[in-house]
Design brief:
Elements: H1 20-25, E1 33-35, E2 50-51, E3 54-60, E4 78-79, E5 100-116, H2 129-135, E6 138-143, E7 158-169, E8 172-179, E9 184-186, E10 200-216, H3 218-222, E11 229-236, H4 248-268
Parallel strand pairs: 1-9
Antiparallel strand pairs: 2-11, 3-5, 4-11, 5-10, 5-11, 6-7, 6-10, 7-8, 9-10
Length: 269
């Protein structure tokens, strides 16, 4: 199995309560953007630039739910009960108990959006580790059908992204990832289904794939909530994504800068 180099991206800040400027200062440019609103509707994408794909039941590791679910963005979830492998929560694809929820796309694309289906979150602040794990309970895997043996061969699947844990701040949990961090997390869910899809996530990877899959994330398994559910998965190329609104963090940074400027002016008088 070809496994990309794992890098942990930790956005843990010790300055949450020190003021708006301090909050903004601890957010690196490459970090995940967290938005309180919803994702852009698929109708805002140019025709032909995104692919809802096809959910494939019984593809890797046994039953993966109905083919009618997990393909159309319709609020119907598809899910599996994952297990805590002896070799680690996201053990190697060679293990006999390895299984994935799999989607096939018409052509390789470098980005995916997970329309999460929430069954334990109904809005409001997240204040505990269990709920934090529940809303990001997916590790993401990729495969290219051009590989020898194709994507039916478990060894051809690459481990792309995995939420390891989170730090809960005043606006909600902030996650650290193995592999590729989410580019954007929409706390309000999707334009199509709102909080049903709360914590909708976008990811962009260094390699395009025509098969993507999920299983339980490390943090979900550690919190014993590894039953990852999705409404749908959409694949696209990052260059085709409509502009994302400015996150509230950047607005707070501007307020903090103005506050410092005003304070210095008062000191000079």
């Amino acid at each position: 199995m070809s496994t990309p180099m794992m890098s942990t991206q930790l956005r843990q800040c010790s300055a949450w309560a020190v003021g708006a400027l301090a909050v903004a200062a601890c957010v690196p440019a490459e970090a995940t953007t967290y938005l309180d609103g919803v994702s852009a509707p698929l109708s805002s994408y140019a025709a032909g630039t995104f692919d809802l794909g096809t959910h494939l039941p019984n593809f890797i590791g046994g039953s993966n739910g109905s083919a009618a679910d997990g393909t159309n963005l319709d609020g119907n979830r598809v899910y599996i009960f994952d297990i805590n492998d002896a070799a680690g929560p996201n053990g190697p694809a060679a293990q006999a108990d390895f299984h994935l929820l799999v989607w096939q796309f018409a052509a390789p694309k470098d980005s995916v959006r997970l329309y999460t289906h929430q069954d334990h979150y109904f809005g409001g602040p997240i204040t505990d580790a269990f709920t934090s794990a529940e809303v990001l309970e997916y590790s993401i895997w990729g495969c290219n059908s051009a590989s020898a043996g194709g994507c039916a061969a478990q060894a051809n699947w690459s481990y792309l992204s995995d939420p390891l844990g989170s730090v809960i701040g005043p606006q909600g949990p902030v996650y650290n990832f193995a592999g590729t961090a989410a580019t954007t997390v929409f706390r309000g869910g999707s334009s199509e289904f709102g909080l049903v899809n709360a914590y909708t996530q976008d990811y962009t990877f260094g390699t395009a794939h025509d098969f993507y899959a999920i299983r339980g994330s490390t943090q979900a398994m550690l919190q014993n909530t590894a039953d990852p559910e999705l409404d749908a998965m959409v694949a696209f190329n990052r260059k085709d994504v409509p502009p994302v609104p400015e996150p509230s963090t950047y607005a707070l940074m501007g307020v903090g800068v103005l506050g410092l400027w005003a304070a210095r002016r008062r000191q000079r008088k």
